[in-house]
Amino acid sequence: MDVPAAANVLGTLGAVCWSIQLIPQIVINYRRHNATGLQPSMMMLWAWAGVPLGVYNIVKGFNIALRIQPQILTVLSLITWIQCFYYERKWSVKRSLCVVAPVAAVMGGIQAGLIIALRIPQSHGTEWPMIIMAVLSAALLAAGVLCHYWDIWVHRTVRGISFIFVGIDAAGDVFSLVSIFFQPKLDVLGIVIYATEFVLWCGVFACGGYYNLWPWFKRRWLSHRTKTFPPTVDGEAQTNSSASQERPRSGITLHDMSSSSSVFRTVSANSNLRARAGAQGEEE
Q1: What is the Cα–Cα distance from 86 to 80, expressed in whole angstroms?
Q2: Cα 191 to Cα 56: distance, rounded to the nearest angstrom
């Protein structure tokens, strides 16, 4: 289906979503001054995923929005990645910049070199290098999200990640996925790349509903029910009296016990018992 206008519009929407997807997460990390629960390995894998994805989209001649999209993904992922070390490991700003800047430069150099190198076999009809780029990109994106699945499994909750970020990212995947259908030629590998991540994000949403939303809903429902039907004093008294009436009687009678309901005995109780025992001995 060759509809360039639709492909450009949808690709632009996908690029916009991917441009702002990590901004809510970055802002949340900044406001709370921690990145607890956020997986730095996920962010680094995503940053590297932008390299083969950018090579694939550029060499394949996708619309300009899809060419820019992987670059934005890499930059924002690196910012979020270095936030994990800045907040959690208390790195200084200087140390953080000295680490992240060379990593970004290496990624940019590798992508530029691969674009130049892979255009040659692409022009001769050799497809396997591009297949490797597509598979590598999809694998890195999926591995990044799977890192968070492991954290969900260990802690039995979705923590440290913004659901706004997840929703925007999933929307970007959908727009980018649909835009491929309006390209001059349907690209199956491109569909696999975006569809894989979209399915994994749907799984994170499902885990969030099960581990976070459902317990919250039950707590709210129970608190509302308690406020609507508060227990009365008379009802508690009737319950206690009926319980005492239903309690089975025992043939054992307790005498000279300081307390029949406690296993703890005080010093005064012991002296009282000894005084009573002495009085009984004198009477005999």
Answers
A1: 10
A2: 12
pLDDT of residue 93: 92
Mean pLDDT along residues 5-16:
82
And the tokens for 208?
């969030």
Residue 46 and residue 193 in contact, taking contact as beta carbons nearer than 8 Å = no
Distance CA 272, CA 66 (A): 90
Q: Where are the beta strands (DSSP E) in 36-101?
A: none
Query: At how many degrees (to 10) do helices 128-155 and 93-123 cross?
Result: 140
H or E stretch covering 150: helix 128-155
Half-sphere exposure of 42 (CA within 13 A, CB side): 20
pTM of the shown model:
0.66
HSE-CB at 22 with a 13 A cutoff on CA atoms is 21
Q: How many CB atoms lie within 10 A of CB 36?
A: 11
Which tokens in the block code for residue 206?
Answer: 């499902």
Residues belonging to the chain: 284
